[in-house]
């Protein structure tokens, strides 16, 4: 989260898979089962191409053609936004995500990625505004609380960031990731013993988390 917004690319792929598997979660939509199936096929093709080292450009074009044929299918718009972001097409990602949010204003994953992009662009006020507004509508979304923690961290409100992370964990955010970022916060507050404890908990779940191990080993507890 705090190191390039929690290694954003990894988190995007998780949310990307979520948006394909969990359609129609945000109220009335015009989702259609046959479009859902075609979306899943298009996403599988794109992911396969990327795994094989291909740019996935052709598969992205096919996905966007699906969105143009079904402009009221919010899950496809959301998927297009994630793919555009993976291709570092910021303007394209924003355009698709905004379209998804017009259809589903309470779509927390679309808001999450829009806020991530705002942080990437250095627009902290926009990231804060989008996150706080969406949390009022969807208060039980773990990712939004993680984003709130990120915003607070960059604002220098470390204690507030800690509170947001703890809420995110209670709502299902991965414990290892929360513990790693709690370690960063503890370091920032000068609580080095607590930082080591958080890194140890992270490493219990993710023994190969090199960044956590490196930071733990660098702590000086004189």
Give an account of the 3D structure.
- The protein is mostly helical and 222 residues long.
- Helices cover 76% and strands 0% of the residues.
- The chain is built from twelve helices and no strands.
- Helix 2 (33-51) runs antiparallel to helix 3.
- The protein starts with a helix and ends with a helix.
- Residues 4-31 have low confidence and may be disordered.
Taken from the alpha-carbon principal axes, the silhouette is globular
Strand content range: under 5%
Low-confidence stretches: 4-31
Could you report the average pLDDT, rounded to the nearest whole number? 87
The total of helices stands at: 12
Helix content: over 70%
Element-level helix/strand string: HHHHHHHHHHHH
> What structural class do the secondary elements suggest?
mainly alpha
Oligomeric status = single chain
- Terminal CA distance: 29 Å
Radius of gyration in whole Å, from Cα? 18 Å
């Amino acid at each position: 989260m705090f190191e390039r917004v929690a290694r954003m690319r990894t988190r995007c792929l998780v949310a990307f898979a979520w948006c394909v598997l969990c359609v129609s979660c945000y109220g009335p939509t015009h989702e259609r089962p046959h479009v859902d199936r075609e979306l899943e096929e298009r996403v599988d093709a794109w992911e396969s191409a990327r795994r094989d080292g291909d740019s996935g450009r052709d598969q992205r074009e096919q996905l966007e053609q699906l969105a143009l044929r079904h402009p009221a299918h919010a899950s496809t718009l959301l998927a297009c936004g994630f793919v555009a972001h993976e291709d570092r097409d910021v303007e394209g990602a924003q355009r698709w995500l905004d379209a998804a949010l017009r259809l589903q204003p309470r779509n927390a994953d679309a808001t999450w990625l829009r806020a991530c992009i705002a942080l990437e662009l250095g627009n902290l006020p926009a990231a804060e505004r989008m996150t706080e507004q969406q949390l009022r509508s969807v208060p039980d979304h773990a990712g939004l609380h993680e984003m709130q923690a990120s915003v607070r961290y960059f604002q220098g409100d470390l204690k507030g960031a800690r509170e947001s992370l703890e809420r995110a964990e209670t709502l299902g955010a991965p414990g290892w990731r929360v513990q790693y970022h709690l370690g960063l916060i503890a370091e920032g507050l000068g609580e080095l013993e607590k930082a080591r404890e958080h890194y140890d908990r992270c490493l219990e779940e993710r023994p190969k988390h090199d960044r956590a191990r490196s930071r733990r080993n660098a702590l000086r507890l004189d």
